[in-house]
């Protein structure tokens, strides 16, 4: 049996538009959500007070939509920010947590979870200008084979194809990811541009680092969905 790994924002559309009857059965119940402790602004992150994280007070576009939809149906929820790999494992067990707000597609996840639609994202590669002042010579995904690739623990980089198997994926957060690039231990990492840009809103302006270089992966059109969060709010309804 598949358990629920709901992708950000569109998870709520699944509950209400695709299976509205199921949404009604959740009225008055509490859904336990886990999210990546590394945070994923602007979609979901912990609020800051005087530059410091608040205790488990979540914010972001995804949280806004969740509140909008769950609120209309009287559904309560709790959200905990824990390591992403652990979050996925806990959802798979189906005991402590019921869903997550984000998660990209790959075959393994499709077999283990119930994946719901996605939204538009643009995947970029990031590197340190301290070691590559002239940038990386990348004309296609296969060119990354020449570089030492690094990623976050438990994250999915399926858009790299078989090259993902060569990645070192044991970094716990974005701060460490940037540091390790500047130290020259690895050459390149990958992330959606929107995420790196979103960190500026919580006091971590990664793109403002003059030594961080980045460019769109050639030929990668990103993920997309017919309705983004912005469209949902412009229409004034999630139905």
From TrEMBL:
<protein>
    <recommendedName>
        <fullName>Solute-binding protein family 3/N-terminal domain-containing protein</fullName>
    </recommendedName>
</protein>
<feature type="domain" description="Solute-binding protein family 3/N-terminal">
    <location>
        <begin position="39"/>
        <end position="129"/>
    </location>
</feature>
<dbReference type="InterPro" id="IPR001638">
    <property type="entry name" value="Solute-binding_3/MltF_N"/>
</dbReference>
<dbReference type="Pfam" id="PF00497">
    <property type="entry name" value="SBP_bac_3"/>
</dbReference>
């Amino acid at each position: 049996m598949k358990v629920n790994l709901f992708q950000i924002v569109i998870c709520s559309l699944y509950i209400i538009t695709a299976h509205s009857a199921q949404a009604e059965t959740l009225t008055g119940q509490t859904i336990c959500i886990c999210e990546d402790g590394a945070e994923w602004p602007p979609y979901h992150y912990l609020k800051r007070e005087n530059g410091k994280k608040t205790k488990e007070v979540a914010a972001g576009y995804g949280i806004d939509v969740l509140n909008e939809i769950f609120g209309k149906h009287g559904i309560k929820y709790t959200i905990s920010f824990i390591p992403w790999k652990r979050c996925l494992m806990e959802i798979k067990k189906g005991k402590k947590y019921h869903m997550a707000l984000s998660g990209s597609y790959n075959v393994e996840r499709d077999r283990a979870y119930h994946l719901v639609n996605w939204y538009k994202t643009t995947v970029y590669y990031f590197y340190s200008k301290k070691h590559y002042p002239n940038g990386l010579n990348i004309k296609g995904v296969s060119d990354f084979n020449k570089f030492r690739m690094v990623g976050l623990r438990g994250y999915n980089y399926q858009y790299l194809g078989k090259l993902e198997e060569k990645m070192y994926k044991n970094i716990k957060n974005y701060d460490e990811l940037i540091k390790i690039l500047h130290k020259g231990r690895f050459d390149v990492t990958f992330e959606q541009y929107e995420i790196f840009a979103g960190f500026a809103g919580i006091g971590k302006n990664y793109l403002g680092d003059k030594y961080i270089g980045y460019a769109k992966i050639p030929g990668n059109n990103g993920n997309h969905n017919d309705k983004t969060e912005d469209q949902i709010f412009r229409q004034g309804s999630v139905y």
